[in-house]
Structures are given as structure tokens and as C-alpha cells.
Amino acid sequence: MGSAFVYGDNVDTDVIIPARYLTTTDEKELAAHALEDLDPTFVERVRPGDVVVAGDNFGCGSSREHAPVALKGTGVQAVVARSFARIFFRNAINTGLAIVVCPAAVDAIDDGDSVSVGLATGIVTNHTKDRRFAADPLPDFVMDIVRAGGLVPWVRARVGAA
Amino acid sequence: MTAATITEKILAAHAGRDFVRPGEIVMCKVDLAMANDVTAPSAADAFRRMGVATVWDRHKIALVASHFVPAKDIPTAKLMTRMRQFAIEYDIEHFFEVGRGGIEHILLPEEALTLPGQVVIGADSHSCTYGALGCFSTGVGSTDLAAVWATGEIWLKVPETMKIVYSGRPAPWVMGKDLILSVIARIGDDGARYMAMEHTGESIAHLSMDSRLTLTNMAIEAGAKSGIVEPDGRTLDYVRTRQEATGRRRPFDVFTSDPGADYASVLDVDCASMEPMIARPSLPSRSVPVSTVERRRVDQVFIGSCTNARIEDLRMAAHVLGSERIAPSVRLMVIPATQRVWKQANDEGLLDRFAQAGGSVSTPTCGACLGAHMGVVGPNEVCVSTSNRNYVGRMGDPTAQVYLANPAVAMAAAVAGEIVHPAEVRMAPPSSEDEEVLVVG
């Protein structure tokens, strides 16, 4: 369970991690600047287990994998959005950032609400408002990658690596 | 035989299938896998963890120094070193060092490495650009790209296609940039999310390859997976010219959409009545005709990026500039996209004209477009840019305000010192007797 940080539509990868910080690929260094240009106080307020909640087209823009890596590095439990931009969606699956498509939950979560996300069950719970929502299921193919632990182990299995 | 779109046919051919349907997930063989100095280092790390001895095909990988080049500091020099070491270790054939390449999305078509009918995967979101040649091309992140390096394949969800039908000869001062900005203004920043945007209609014949590449370049700004234009005579002339010039003569296949193919939606766009567009801060969808926008004082004008830094763009900018000088209050940055564009612009005297007018001319780099270096904007500054994104903080300080426009509008702002219609600076667009030189109506 964690606190919800609620943002709007089109949260782009340039505000998730500005290009001036792409000089590193280190998760912790990137996490120190996550969402800095959208919410300068996010990094100091966020705690492990918190949840980022947003509207449509979350992660639009650049293909920089640094974006999901930076968010993952902050320890957030998941990102719950009305929809995700496609490259960010793939990057999150590949790097192990939990993402959940659940428009109904987004509509019913206010900033600071206490939220938990059941990744196995696909249930988003707003404990503050005592409401539960079923997330849109991911395609089976994509769930295989999630269950493998990301794209690297998935490829290792495919190529028969030990 | 099932009627199919050009995109469905290309994906089917690469998946070993007779046909594919939108929504299904297929494994496709990849013809070219590209990364740059920002995305290659992470891809190299992921690749080394994938448990394969070497890359699937060292001839089908392109590594391009484009973003933080020339290196701006020690950390970015290290990123380049990581990419260079990977290129050496795996004997990558197409590695483009600083001074021998440029911005990948303009470079690879020039180098005849992206061809009609291919599946091209790039670790950069503007990899959708290559679709102007009639190939399927899309952007991915570093780990996806590493998987292609390891296996030669990628999983793709077959996209639905949005068909855009452009009619009429493009109006004066209207370029490829204006067509795509007007589409994004209508459908929104995610109006084509997960889709292929297929650009069709009689107007396409009036567009040079340079303008077509701008059209497909910004598919991602509508959330699309890809943008594509069916090859025509001009496409094939361009491809064959580049194949001759580079000596790279890989065979390729030309695909076209069937008349009865299914489209998720069809959008009609009248180019004859169009005006040059300008996207207001801070989303590409906030595009409006330039004559309707507030005349704002401008601090910086940037003519560059994978969207608009081809020779046609620089010629247009030089035409609008004429023998004027840049307004004293404006900084003009001109960054030709590739070494080849730079040399051609130099031979034609364009770079000298920009410099004589008080503009800064630099070596190829993505630089200013993403606020990386070579033209970062400061607090509250106003910039007119020929690039593709005007998001908050994209080009520098989060309080800066970025407008997106074609190179004629950008140069007009540099001369006037404020946002104006190019006709206020220069009476008429260049004559279009030679449509390869300039495409405007």
C-alpha cells in the first residue's frame, strides 16, 4: 500500500526524465530526477510502495528506457494510467516497471489516497475510498514476458542460454 | 486473397505468413536494427546479459553517433566509448562516427540502409521516419533492440491503420511539416496511438522525399506505431540514386495497399487551403495556422533535427533569409542533419549566407532538439524550432516556451524577431519549377 501521486494526460518522457540526465544509465542516479520538470517535489516525497496515477498517453515521446528505469528506481509500486504510449509500455514490461491500465481506478483516485495494486490479481484498491477496480488484462504474450521477469530472461530462455 | 494494407503485407512477409490481421501478435524478421549514443549503451548491456555468443547479423546493425555529439562532457564521452567498444567487439559494419554520419533518421536513407518493403527497428522514437520509403519502421527501447541484436526478430502487435488522404496541391509555404502538424492538431497527441498512419492522396505526388520524410517523422507525436507512404516513381528514383552513390545495392520489395483493405479510420486533409502551421507550447497538437497565432517576441530560432534539417529545409530557410540579417535580439542556430547535407549546403553557399546574416552554424547533432547541448534554452525564453516536440523542458528550462514550425516560418521569425507568416518577410516561396528542389506550391 502507498500514497497516490496523481497527474494528468500526456505525461511525456521528457518530464519523466529530462534529457539533461541521460548522461547516465544508472537506475539510482536517474531516479534522483524522476518527474522533476512536472513535479519538483516528487522525488523528495515519494516512498517505496507509492503509486503514480495518470491519465491518457502516459510516457509519450522519446524511446528512452531511462524513463521506466527512473520510475522503478524511486521504488514506486506501479503506474496506473488510463492508457500508455506504446514505446513506454514495451519499455516498462521489458525493464520490470509494473504498469496497469485501469481508467475507472484513475477516475476514482485523488492525490494522496492510499492505494494498492495487485499485480497477480489485476485489482487496484483505493483504501481511502474503500473501492476496488479490475484492471484491463495484458495480452497473454506480454504476460509471458512479465512472468519471465522481463525481456532479458525471456530472450535467454528462447535462445536456450543457461 | 484477403485485401490488406501495405503495413499488413510487409509484416506478413516478415512473419512468414500469407496475411496478418490487426491486433494479432507476430514475430517478424528484422532487416535493420539501429541505435544511437543514448540508447546503444543500455542495449549493449542488455545484449551481453542475453546469453548469445554474438549478434545475429553484423551487416544489419547500424550504430549512429547523433545525440550527445560531439561529446559535451566526460559522461557523454563515456557513452560514446561504450557504443564504439560494442561496434568494435562485434565488428558492426555500419558504425557512424562523429564527422562521418549525422542524425540517424536522415542518415540511414541517404546511406541506402533503409529500403522499401523492409522491417526497420530503431532504438529512437523517431525511427518511424523511414516509413516514407514504403517500409515498416518503428521505435523501441534499448532492451527490445538488444533482443533484435540477439535473435534477428521482434514481436509486434499488428497495428490498425489510419488512412490519411491529402488532396490538392499544397498551398504556398506549405511543407511536409504543415501537413503532419495539421493532422496532429485534428486527432490529438494520441489520436493514432498504436496505429500505422498511411499517408495517401494526390498531394503526395507534390511532396519531395525530404518533405515525405518529415511527414512520417512525426507519426510518433500522434502516438502512432509507424507512418508509411506507398513507394512511387520519386521514391524509387531516390532509392536507386542512393544505392548507386553508396554502392549498397540490396534488393528490395515494393508493397502497396489493396483497394479493399480495411482501415480503422479515414481522414481527409485539404492541402490547397492549408496555411503554414505552428505548434504552440507545450504540445504538438496545439498547432494552429501561423497567421492566427499571437506575434510573440522570439529569443532563439533552431533550424535542425531529424524533422527539418535536410537540404530542402536549409534551401527554404536561405530563401526566406535572402540578404537580410538576423534580428539583433534573436539567436539563430542552424544545424544540418548529416555530413552530406552539411557539405551540400556548404557547396551551395547556404551555410555562408546563414553565417553572414549573424546565425550560428554547427556540425550535425540532435543537440538542441532535446535540450542536450548546442542551443539549450533558458528560463522564460521563447524559441521557434523546426524540431518535433515542444514538451515542457524538452529544449531546456521548464519555463521556456517552444513553438514548432517549418523552416520558412522559423527563418521568418529569426529575421522579424517575432512570430510572423513567412510572406511578411519574403514575397513568394521559391519557384517550384524543379519540384525536387522545393516542393511548396
Name the descriptors.
A: 162 residues, alpha/beta, Aconitase, domain 4, B: 441 residues, Aconitase, domain 3, 2 domains, five-stranded parallel sheet, 12 helices, 18 strands, 28% helix, disordered C terminus
Describe what this molecule looks like in 3D:
Chain A has a single domain (2-159), classed as Aconitase, domain 4. Chain A has eight helices and seven strands; from the N terminus they run βαααβαβαβαβββαα. Chain A is an alpha/beta fold and 162 residues long. The longest helix of chain A is centred in the middle third of the chain and has 10 residues, at 86-95. Chain A is globular. In chain B, strand 8, helix 6 and strand 9 form a beta-alpha-beta unit. In chain B, helix 2 (40-48) packs across helix 5. The two termini of chain B are 40 Å apart. At the A-B interface, helix 5 and helix 8 of A face helix 2, helix 3 and helix 5 of B.
Helix content of chain A: 25-40%
Low-confidence stretches of chain B: 433-441
What is the number of independent domains of chain B? 2
CATH architecture of the largest domain in chain B: 2-Layer Sandwich
In brief:
With 162 residues, chain A is an alpha/beta fold. Helices cover 33% and strands 18% of the residues of chain A.
Topology summary:
The complex is a heterodimer of chains A (162) and B (441).
Chain A: E1 2-6, H1 13-16, H2 27-31, H3 42-45, E2 51-54, H4 66-73, E3 78-81, H5 86-95, E4 99-101, H6 103-107, E5 114-118, E6 123-126, E7 131-134, H7 140-148, H8 151-159
Chain B: H1 6-15, E1 25-29, E2 32-36, H2 40-48, E3 61-64, H3 74-89, E4 94-96, H4 104-110, E5 119-123, E6 136-139, H5 142-151, E7 153-157, E8 161-167, H6 176-187, E9 196-200, H7 209-217, E10 226-229, H8 233-246, E11 265-270, E12 277-279, E13 287-289, E14 300-303, H9 311-321, E15 331-334, H10 339-347, H11 350-356, E16 360-361, E17 382-385, E18 401-405, H12 407-416
Parallel strand pairs in B: 2-3, 2-5, 3-4, 5-6, 8-9, 8-11, 9-10, 14-15, 14-17, 15-16, 17-18
Antiparallel strand pairs in B: 1-7, 12-13, 12-18
Helix pairs in contact in B: 2-5, 6-7, 9-12
